[in-house]
Amino acid sequence: xxxxxxxxxMRARFQVQIKALPDLYxxxxxxxxxxxxxxxSEYANARSIMLYHSxxxxxxxxxxxxxxxxxxxxxxxxxxxxxxxxxxxxxNSLGELAPAMLGIPAPPGSAPVIAxxxxxxxxxxxxxxxxxxxxxxxxxxxxxxxxxxxxxITVGLARQRLIVDSLPVGQHxxxxxxxxxxxxxxxxxxxxxxxxxxPLLKKGVNR
Length: 207
Fold this sequence. Notes:
Layout: H1 3-19, H2 23-38, H3 41-45, E1 48-50, H4 62-70, E2 74-81, E3 85-91, E4 98-99, E5 105-106, E6 113-114, E7 121-124, E8 128-130, E9 135-136, H5 142-147, E10 153-157, E11 163-164, E12 178-181, E13 184-186
């Protein structure tokens, strides 16, 4: 099975698994993820941060965005175009976000663009993460294109139950620097993995 076919199969499997997650677990997980993100020194030191608008049972990003706005950080969200291209556009309040591509709330087209190289931290969505910080995305390739070559700290948010031993990795996939779950902060090893398997991060290891 090639990488794309393997990813497609895993997406279907994780979507079923995510749909079955209990509401109580979701709430407890959201609370732990929020605490662990906002306790990061990298978060405290970041002057500008890009988040995504969580939907469904994704880890809640809106509380993090509110915290960032209240602390005076520059806060941006994705503004997507067809063809896998996106920009980071600055907002001053969550009320500026409105349904856009695929119904996901995004800034208005008039919102100012922040250059990717000016971002200090980028919070990245995924269905699941593996032990090297590689992500199983939704298949559009937006973030892999956006993240390539940036110096910003990249942070993946994941339910602990969705941290897996290995994921299929393609040549264009970009790993995140840090993965945060409700159990702790996980830092992938610096070693570059091969495309076929990666060791599982130790659960709940605080940096």
